[in-house]
Amino acid sequence: MAKGWLRALQSASDLSRDVEIVGLVDLDHAVAEALAAEFGLDHVVIDTDLVSVIDATRADMVFDVVVPSARFAVVSTALKLGCHVLSEKPLATSLDEANALLALAAETGRVHAVVQNRRFISGVRRLRRAVEDGLIGEVSGIHCDFFIGPHFGGFREAMDNVLLLDMAIHTFDAARFVSGKEPLSVYCVETNPSGSWYAHGASANAIFRLSGDAVFSYRGSWCAEGRRTSWESAWRLVGSKGMITWDGEESFEATVAGDETGLLRGHRALSIPDAPDLDETHGHRSVLAEFIDAVKSGRRPETVSDDNIKSLSMVFGAIESARTGLPVSISVEGH
């Protein structure tokens, strides 16, 4: 992921103008050296200790691309040393840690945000605009299917709750963003199916109650071989006037009731508006630009941590429900 962030920073002239990479930190010094060589970062400070690099470089921002278990230590250190922080997801490995980081960001006055890069793609932005425009009326149902079988190797295959904690948050966060609704409760069944190459929790089925009496259902598996869905899931939005379907890639369809008589009224197709701003649809590049602009202007970034914790609470609510076999209320302490 560090390579993806560096490619995004170097590929856009406005980002490369605003941001200078001054240091790289990795527990394995050789890994950081290899990254610096690959991206032509000849004059950066390289070390295994974050404090030393921040002190040596007087850095303004820290881009946190560590494994989840290291996130709290990295982010809290950077905030205490006066740096703004943009983190990979998840925001934290527990809600207690997340709330502690939010409190620290507020205390230090630093910008703290999370890379929910899948908000910043054309399809998600188009869905959001269609909902805001009332294309299908009031949204009452969001239904997402995610079935893929990636063989990552590495830390993911050893994680607990791997699908919910490492991947499903993308769809959970997008469902919040698209619908404009807030999560209230969840019931979840989590399994590790036969044939799974993960240690735990490669499949999950979750039903969320949302504000406005809406429902969000998620069916997912990260060990589903065969014809896959998109990485963005396959979507169906149900509203008071009609439905929108999106395959997570290029295929969109919006339909409302037709004029047929009898039991079923048929359907009539509608056009779906484009994404409102093409600058917001470049994934990592867009979320980095949005974060950097927030640091420069003093405004709140879209994926600021005190909003992103609501998406994280959906993840931990689903994990708790799967553990207990009971519905779980979703609340965010102090927010």
Automatic annotation (TrEMBL):
SUPFAM superfamilies, A to Z: Glyceraldehyde-3-phosphate dehydrogenase-like, C-terminal domain, NAD(P)-binding Rossmann-fold domains
Official protein name in the record: Dehydrogenase
PANTHER family from the UniProt entry: CONSERVED EXPRESSED OXIDOREDUCTASE (EUROFUNG) (PTHR43708), OXIDOREDUCTASE (PTHR43708:SF8)
Domain GFO/IDH/MocA-like oxidoreductase per the UniProt entry, residue ranges: 124-244
Organism of provenance: Peteryoungia aggregata LMG 23059
Residues in Gfo/Idh/MocA-like oxidoreductase N-terminal domain copies: 10-114
Gene3D superfamilies reported for this sequence: Dihydrodipicolinate Reductase, domain 2, NAD(P)-binding Rossmann-like Domain
